[in-house]
Specification:
Number of strands: 10
Radius of gyration: 17 Å
Distance between the termini: 41 Å
Length: about 190
């Protein structure tokens, strides 16, 4: 595995960009997110355990998203030469969308992108995944990918009524997003 470049700040949203790398392996671009263990020795054993649990959760859901056809292809977890573990997926050329009030890159979205994002969110609810901090990457071809599942949770113990409420909230949130998109003339 050879390092091709570090991701430019404009390629990714958020403050965790320092842990993002774009790798090139046999001519293929891969996305790598350095996750564990955290830098420094200022963390207690219980804090390290929390970081480990978040890492394992994110790796498991990155694999699940890939298996469902909703996320970039999961390539695995690797330990780098620096001793840090990385979650590695296919790299998707495109742009990110974090569902905030008016997301960054909002002007790049099409109505179809928004509908595809909504369909992905509903599918996750259908299979019992709570999508805390839902984020997407829109590929250059327009395909929508769910990314960064660090805080996803399993709703296996939820009732059908709870899942229905989740779906109704998704419906409302995306209807508001489509409405704002239309009002802004996109």
């Amino acid at each position: 595995m050879t390092y091709r470049q570090k991701a430019a700040h404009s390629d990714f949203i958020g403050d965790s960009n320092l842990g993002i790398e774009i790798l090139e392996v046999n001519g293929r671009k891969l996305f790598s997110k350095i996750k564990f263990p955290p830098e420094g020795n200022q963390y207690s054993e219980s804090q390290i355990k929390i970081f480990e649990d978040l890492f394992l959760n994110e790796a498991a859901y990155a694999k699940k998203l890939s298996d469902l056809g909703l996320g970039p292809k999961f390539e695995g977890v690797v330990k780098g030469p620096d001793g840090k573990y990385r979650i590695v997926t296919e790299f998707v050329e495109g742009f990110e969308i974090h569902l905030d009030d008016i997301p960054k890159n909002f002007e790049k979205l099409t109505v179809q992108n928004i509908k595809d994002m909504q369909a992905a969110a509903k599918k996750l609810a259908d299979v019992g995944i709570e999508t805390v901090d839902l984020q997407f990457r829109i590929g250059k071809n327009g395909k929508v990918y769910v990314i960064d599942p660090e805080y996803f949770e399993n709703l296996a113990n939820s009732t059908p009524a709870q899942r229905e409420i989740t779906k109704q909230l998704i419906e409302r949130d995306f209807a508001n997003l489509i409405s704002a998109h239309s009002r802004l003339g996109h």
